[in-house]
Prior knowledge:
The complex is a heterodimer.
Chain A: H1 2-22, H2 26-49, H3 58-88
Chain B: H1 2-7, H2 11-24, H3 31-58, E1 64-73, E2 76-84, H4 86-109, H5 116-135, H6 139-157, H7 164-195, H8 210-216, H9 219-234, H10 243-246, H11 252-261, H12 264-273, H13 275-278, H14 288-309, H15 314-334, H16 338-365, H17 378-381, H18 383-397, H19 404-417, H20 424-448, H21 464-484, H22 490-496, H23 510-535, H24 546-550, H25 552-559, H26 564-638, H27 643-664
Antiparallel strand pairs in B: 1-2
Helix pairs in contact in B: 2-3, 2-5, 3-4, 3-5, 4-5, 4-11, 4-16, 4-21, 5-6, 6-7, 7-9, 9-12, 9-14, 11-16, 12-15, 12-16, 14-15, 14-20, 15-16, 15-19, 15-20, 16-18, 16-19, 16-21, 18-20, 18-21, 19-20, 19-21, 19-23, 20-23
Amino acid sequence: MLSIFLLISAAFFSIGLLAALSRRHAIFILIGIEMMLAAASLNFVAFWRFGPSPHQPTGVMIAIFAIAIAAAEAAVGLALVIAVYRHYRTTSVDQLDQLKG
Amino acid sequence: MNHWIASNLWLIPATPIVVSLLILNLPKSARSPAAGFAILGQIGALALSILAFFATSQMAGLQTVRNFTWLTFGNNALRLGWLLDPLASAMLVMITVVGLCIFIFSTGYMAEDRNFKRFFAYLSFFSGAMLGVVLANSLLLLFVFWELVGLASYLLIGFWIERPTAAAAAKKAFITTRIGDMGFFLGLLWLYHRSGTLLFYDSGSGCLENAALNSLGVAATFIALLIFCGAVGKSGQFPLHVWLPDAMEGPTPVSALIHAATMVAAGVFLVARVYPIFSVGAINGVTPSLEVVVWIGVVTGLMAALIAVAQSDIKRILAYSTVSQLGLMMVSLGVGGVAAGIMHLLAHGFFKALLFLGAGSVIHGLHHEQDIRKMGGLRRLMPITFVTYAIGMMALSGVPLLFSGAWTKEEVLHATSIWPRSHLPHYLMMAGVILTALYMTRQVIYIFFGNRGPASEGAHESPPVMTWPLVALAFGTITLSVVLTPAWPWLHDFLIGKQARFDFAHLIEPAVFTSLMLVLIGIGLGIVLYRGVAAENRLRPIEVDPFQAAQPALFRFLQNKMWIDEFYRGSVLRWSKALSRVSDWLDRNCWDGIVRGFGWLGQLFGIFTTGVDERGINAGVDETTSGARGLGRLFANAHSGQIQTYLGVIAIGMLALLLLYAWLA
């Protein structure tokens, strides 16, 4: 059973990574990142459920924390996107190359 | 009280000098305070001088010395000092009295000058410097004040700086006296080298005392002659007399001060002061150096008297007369009549100041006309000036009894007559006396007698502030004759430190009659020669002098001052110009060439180092920097700012790590 969860999680992560790398729109990149986070949380829960001590809810706790932090992070990320949009009138990360060397 | 002054002698020169500094710091508009301070300072110096005079006159032959250390270097100390003796104290009183009269006169004469304040500052300074010369007990201190006198004379002769002639005259005075001072300075150094001290009197070890004098030996002659060079310059003796007549460019009170109380008196005083050096190894009172003094004096005295006969500027006549009288004093010192020479100097100070101030009064009254040929008939227009001028003229000519110059001249003639070496100076000086009477008679006839000249129109007597000093000086001239008579030679004996005795018999000595005869001949000759001038209609300036009519060539020779100025211009000045041209050429071509050669070498080296820099060092540095720049550009390209590229790289890296882990496991 564990391997099924792990495969799903890996697939999720790969999809998220692909989205983050290939989409040009900042919000889609954020969505991709959220997907990768969700894949990691799934891993935590799976390893807890099929691990040596499934009675204590450690994995769930970590997943809940990760979701909470992800929510905060998404909020900051969206705020940044809005701020960037207001400043540059674009959300395409191709054009946001001010930090290039 | 009397001895208080002996230990505070420095106060006497310090008073006028401090006053002059004070005046310099006053605002330019403070005219009456400036004159007031100057006169007060002079009165102070006069009071102190009189104290000093009484201190010396109470004790015959008193000589007070106050030495102090100025500098110490190693084991040697350079000591200076003040000296009060009869010679100094008599000079002090003369300088301050005459100075005071001139100061008061100046307040009237200079009343309309813009730089009134500066004038009084300089006058005060001049007087203070001269007092310092008189009181110095060290040849070095004397030299310092001597040069200050020179400086003050320079400032005052060139007082009217806006006139080019005044500036030239000031320069001439300064440079000419400097030639003499050069000799003086060398003599001073030599004396210091031989005797090790420059103090005159230092309880047995001073340079004018026997121990030091004996050690001088043959060098004494040369030292004396070098010091005499200074006196020749300052006192306008023969080769260096040319500055004195030109110094007439200064304001008339300055001429009076230079010719009477200060400056020219300094030279005669110097010879009198260092007389012991002149008379080292004297046989019968004759030494080679003193002989030089005599002959220089004779030449000067006669030459200047001759030139004075043919001059037509009121002040120039007096200037040549001063030169001539200074020659007489030098002769007197040279033949051994030190007291006679100094007495003549003192008496001369009074009557020459009187004559110059009288001339100033005439010039003032005639609105700055100085040509005697345009004057005439001033006797009635300026009575006080006339009377006082006549007194001065008679004193200078040597009319006996009431006029001081007579007795001192007689003393000088007496001193020359007993000179063992030669009688020529005696006879030449007798000729000088005749000439003096002649040119003074001429001057007085031209200025005061006869019909009015073209410049006499509108002439007026000078204000009281100018006539009173004349009266005072005339009074002094007459009073001085009382203490100068051979019957009661008080001043003479005061100077040599004896108590005077009254002896009426001296009044009827043959010498007195001889000099009386000479003076009468001179004045008579003058009246005969110039009688016609007085009778002439003078509405136009007199063009032909009676003497000129008789001897045109000789007159021209004398009128042009024997062409001495021209001779100097043609010789010394030309040579020095040629020399400067040669050194200019050397400078440009020789020394400049060397300097330029060095510069060229430096330039060459510069070119070489530039090449090394640009080709070698710079190239290496350039290579390094361009390499660094290329590398930077390479890395900068990776830093694209594309966040997804970064992410991709991270992902690839992570994948690579995983694969590595899998492969290792």
